Backbone:
């Protein structure tokens, strides 16, 4: 029996992206719920668990690097996006099955490494899926489609989290790996293989031109992507919106698992709470996207983001009332009152409603300001920065719990989650995705900001101020500065061309060195390099901040 091509109809597209996103949610749910719960039960501290959960989101934070390759290098036989999805899903299955050969908990470090590789393939798959969505979904179905997509991710997280916790008594942890691998394999066979992605004529030209031409195309593509990010006010606002937490996040990260263990919930109770949260959130994702298509995305998204802070603020009351302030070691824990356990359930489920309403709508509004010509790069960069916001939120919340306690951490999170509302009004679609005339000003401002970030690294590295327990947050933020600076220098050199030859050439030399700054974690002895590269990058960025950027002042042909 021939399986249907789901991309051919509206209902088919909704179903296809729902199931594809299930395969994205499974590994994240496994890490954030199943593994995090077992770590806390083994008396691992909240800060360490927060860092552990953050490490699983980091591959998703830098998935933008796959975008240009997925947009440029395609397969005539497998399809422009479908080939990438198929290959990455096969690797997801293989890395999960590889975990069954590990001796746990003795090889917990190796397990973490394998799962990091697994999530890297998951992030690469996400790039291809999102690009396929941008080029396939109709404008009037993006809201509900994104609702279905993130509903699928939520169901996948339930399968990887609650599902594994439920199956542990029957199959053990190794059986859980086989279970989630089988789920991904089923989507590969039943959904991905039957897809028929039409090949554009331009893609055929790229494939026929050979590797050298593909390299030139990659350079041209980089220029177009650079213009797309800076060319319109909506796309520019999207960058800053993506870097801010999308509402309060604490009840969706490790704080929930930490608190559940401390108030005496067993594995089954934690699994049921996670399962109900995922189901409720999934339903609300679809409903929230549907509402946004009819009542306006920005208006509804602002409401959803505000609602996310309410259950977080509510939970502070019962915690303070029952004097449940600081995390305690396993041998010092007391029995939680039934009223506190109920309050945790109420807060978590209400949060699932608000978070579900938000997810699909947030993704849809970013599609509105994405240039379809560079979809895999631009939209993926937005999503990657949102994952970076999750990573640094998980990190600072773990640190804050140990330093300030649960109620104050919840209060800070409820306030910080509202900051993105200040940017939301500026995220508007543009009829000229390649440029509205303001790209030159935005390029200069971004160059100046990145230069300041590189300069700020120097006293931090020299130990002028001690970040203390917050050091992981600073390290993550400076890594973002270095990566963003590298991308800006490389893309900026291609965009400026002969108008800034010296700065462009220096930028191309410094770009890979800035990426190499990530190695400071493993080779701290190269201290001179870690001072010289950011200092030199700051000088070049300051020079670029003085350039007129004429290439970004001119309207693109498509907008004429």
Residues:
């Amino acid at each position: 029996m021939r399986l249907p091509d789901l991309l051919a109809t509206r209902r088919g597209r909704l179903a296809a992206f729902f199931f594809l996103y299930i395969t994205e949610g499974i590994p994240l749910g496994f890490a954030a719920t199943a593994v995090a719960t077992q770590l806390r039960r083994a008396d691992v501290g909240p800060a360490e668990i927060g860092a552990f959960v953050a490490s699983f989101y980091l591959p998703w934070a830098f998935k933008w690097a796959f975008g240009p390759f997925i947009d440029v290098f395609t397969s005539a036989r497998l399809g422009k996006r479908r080939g990438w999805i198929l290959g990455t899903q096969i690797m997801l299955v293989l890395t999960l099955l590889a975990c069954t050969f590990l001796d746990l908990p003795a090889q917990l470090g190796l397990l973490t490494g394998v799962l990091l590789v697994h999530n890297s393939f998951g992030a690469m798959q996400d790039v291809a899926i999102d690009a396929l969505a941008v080029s396939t979904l109709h404008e009037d179905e993006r809201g509900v489609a994104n609702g279905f997509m993130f509903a699928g991710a939520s169901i996948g997280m339930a399968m990887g989290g609650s599902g594994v916790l439920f199956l542990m008594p029957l199959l053990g942890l190794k059986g859980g790996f086989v279970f989630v691998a089988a789920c991904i394999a089923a989507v590969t066979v039943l959904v991905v293989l039957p897809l028929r992605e039409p090949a554009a004529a331009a893609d055929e030209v790229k494939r026929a031109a050979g590797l050298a031409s593909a390299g030139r195309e990659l350079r041209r593509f980089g220029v177009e992507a650079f213009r797309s990010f800076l060319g319109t006010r909506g796309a520019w606002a999207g960058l800053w919106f993506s870097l801010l937490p999308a509402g309060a996040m604490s009840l969706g990260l490790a704080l929930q698992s930490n608190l559940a263990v401390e108030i005496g919930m067993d594995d089954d109770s934690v699994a049921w709470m996670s399962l109900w949260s995922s189901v409720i959130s999934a339903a609300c994702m679809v409903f929230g996207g549907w509402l946004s298509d009819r009542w306006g995305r920005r208006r509804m998204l602002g409401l959803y983001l505000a609602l996310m802070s309410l259950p977080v603020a509510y939970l502070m009351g019962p915690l303070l009332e029952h004097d449940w302030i600081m995390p305690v070691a396993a041998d010092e824990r007391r029995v939680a009152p039934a009223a506190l356990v109920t309050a945790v359930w109420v807060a978590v489920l209400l949060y699932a409603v608000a978070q579900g309403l938000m997810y699909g709508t947030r993704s849809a509004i970013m599609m509105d300001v994405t240039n379809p010509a560079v979809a895999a790069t631009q939209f993926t960069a937005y999503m990657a920065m949102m994952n970076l916001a999750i990573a640094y939120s998980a990190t600072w919340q773990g640190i804050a719990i140990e330093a300030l306690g649960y109620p104050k951490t919840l209060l800070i999170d409820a306030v910080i989650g509202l900051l993105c509302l200040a940017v939301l009004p500026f995220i508007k679609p543009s009829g000229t995705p390649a440029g509205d005339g303001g790209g030159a000003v935005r390029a200069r401002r971004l160059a100046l900001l990145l230069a300041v970030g590189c300069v700020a690294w120097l006293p931090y590295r020299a130990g002028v101020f001690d970040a203390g327990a917050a050091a992981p947050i600073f390290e993550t933020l400076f890594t973002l500065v270095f990566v963003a600076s590298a991308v800006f220098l490389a893309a900026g050199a291609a965009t400026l061309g002969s108008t800034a030859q010296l700065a462009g050439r220096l930028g191309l030399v410094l770009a890979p060195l800035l990426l190499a700054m990530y190695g400071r974690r493993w080779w701290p002895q190269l201290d001179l390099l870690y001072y010289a590269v950011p200092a030199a990058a700051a000088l070049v960025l300051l020079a670029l901040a003085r350039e007129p950027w004429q290439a970004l002042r001119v309207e693109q042909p498509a907008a004429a």
